[in-house]
Write a structure and sequence with these properties.
Blueprint: H1 2-9, E1 20-30, E2 33-35, H2 41-51, E3 55-66, E4 72-83, H3 88-98, E5 117-121, H4 124-128, H5 132-144
Antiparallel strand pairs: 1-2, 1-3, 3-4, 4-5
């Protein structure tokens, strides 16, 4: 949520902008540690192989902020993702197709062709990086004046 807030606060906006700014940031939690974006292709391959055949959690912090007043709502969405068992050959194909360095956990649900994900428990859009169901709830609460 801290990263989502920072993104919303530092968004470059035109002068006299009005409306809302939405910030989001996604991380994975697996085997007792937080996982962000891999920094090398080698790290991405190791990460995907380690996640293979296991479950992990995808967390997305969400911030909705009013430009004029600074009023802010923060929330988080959590989704459980289970990977299929992965081989080095499958991981090499995934990495070549998914551009893993700009994605939390090194993968993209929208680029999976049935090789990667066995099951998703929760919001699919959260795994992509913007939990639309949670965003709808936050926008509705924002409009009602709830803190």
């Amino acid at each position: 949520m801290r990263n989502a807030l920072r993104k919303a606060q530092t968004a470059r906006l035109p002068r006299r902008a009005t409306g809302l700014v939405i910030g989001a940031d996604t991380m994975l939690y697996a085997r007792g540690r937080l996982i962000g974006k891999p920094t090398t292709m080698r790290q991405a391959a190791r990460l995907l192989l380690a996640l293979g055949g296991r479950s992990h959690w995808v967390y997305t912090g969400l911030c909705v902020r009013a430009i004029a007043t600074g009023r802010t709502r923060l929330s988080v969405e959590k989704t459980k993702v289970t990977f299929k068992p992965l081989t080095p050959a499958v991981v090499a194909r995934l990495i070549a197709r998914m551009s893993p360095l700009d994605k939390a956990g090194g993968y993209a649900l929208q680029d999976d062709r049935g090789e990667l994900i066995a099951r998703i428990d929760g919001s699919r859009s959260n795994v992509i990086g913007l939990p639309l169901e949670r965003l709808r709830q936050e926008l509705a609460a924002f409009g009602s004046g709830s803190p």
